[in-house]
Amino acid sequence: MNTNDQKELAEKYLQFFEQTQNADNTEQQMDEINTMLDTALQYSPSAFFIINYQKMKFEYLSPRLKQLLGDDWTNYLNERPKYTLSKMLPSHTEIFVNKVLPEIKMQLANIPMEERINYLFSYNFISICNSKIFNFMQENRYVHSMPDGTPLMAFANGIDITGTLPDNLMKLTVHQILENQYELVFEKEFVVEKKEPETYTEQEKKLILLFKKGLDSNHIAKAMNLSVETVKKHRKNIVKKADVKNMYEMLLKMRK
């Protein structure tokens, strides 16, 4: 989908979206337009999606994006953008929420409202997706926003850029779109501090080995002659040291 097509689609979608907000059959009409989008993007390689920040939900996920997300795509729709944050590595979530998002709002506020649709905001983060670790680049066109720069709706693309940027670097760029040409107008890098690897205790090392073999907490407790509560405490410490959200993500990180 080229930039002109996306702008035209955004304008039509916004017009339709505003018309249906007070309609009784809004949900049915939204289903109809999403079906129309599926048809238009059926053979497109674009991992395209629409984010409604007012309702904090994804209005649309393209067929290609659903394919990339695998069976997990329903969780993104049902649990809303908070699920996306839950899939980020904690260190990246912190930078994204406290630095990247405020910078996006500031940059949007500096652009006249009627021109914001002509700017492309791109940023990356490390995410666990479909049992794999990705460096994910998200490209947003904020098609609807408040005067102070608060985003209300975005048309977005997802791109796998694993291997092209260091894992400890998050980068935000803003390009102005001029007749299908992209002119860089802003760029900022955020370094994600790499924590010094913390050493695991002997019990934690043994627990990790047992977990890798597929044992759950109850079986690990029996194998190590510990209480289940003690095993859970060890797991919590391991996850914290590994800078992940759970043991499964830790194993993925170890395999990377």
Characterise the protein shown here.
The structure is a single chain. The protein is an alpha+beta fold. The chain folds into 2 domains: 3-191, 2-Layer Sandwich (Beta-Lactamase); 202-255, Winged helix-like DNA-binding domain superfamily/Winged helix DNA-binding domain (Arc Repressor Mutant, subunit A), CATH 1.10.10.10. It is 46% helix and 26% strand. It has a 7-stranded antiparallel β-sheet, sandwiched between helices. A hairpin with a 4-residue loop joins strand 1 and strand 2 (57-61). The protein is elongated, with a radius of gyration of 21 Å. The two termini are 32 Å apart. The mean pLDDT is 83.
Mass-distribution shape:
elongated
Spell the H/E element sequence: HHEEHHHHEEEEEHHHH
Could you give the count of β-strands? 7
Category from helices, strands and their pairing: alpha+beta
Count the helices. How many?
10
CATH homologous superfamily of the largest domain - what is it?
PAS domain
**Mean pLDDT value:** 83
Secondary-structure arrangement, i.e. CATH architecture of the largest domain? 2-Layer Sandwich
How far is the N terminus from the C terminus?
A: 32 Å
Strands side by side in the biggest sheet: 2-1-5-4-3-6-7
Runs with pLDDT <50, length 5+? none
**Proportion of residues in helical segments:** 40-55%
Assign the CATH topology of the largest domain. Beta-Lactamase
Question: What is the CATH first-level class name of the largest domain?
Answer: Alpha Beta
**Major sheet attributes:** 7 strands, antiparallel
Number of spatially distinct domains: 2
**Could you tell me the strand content as a percent range?**
25-35%
Radius of gyration: 21 Å
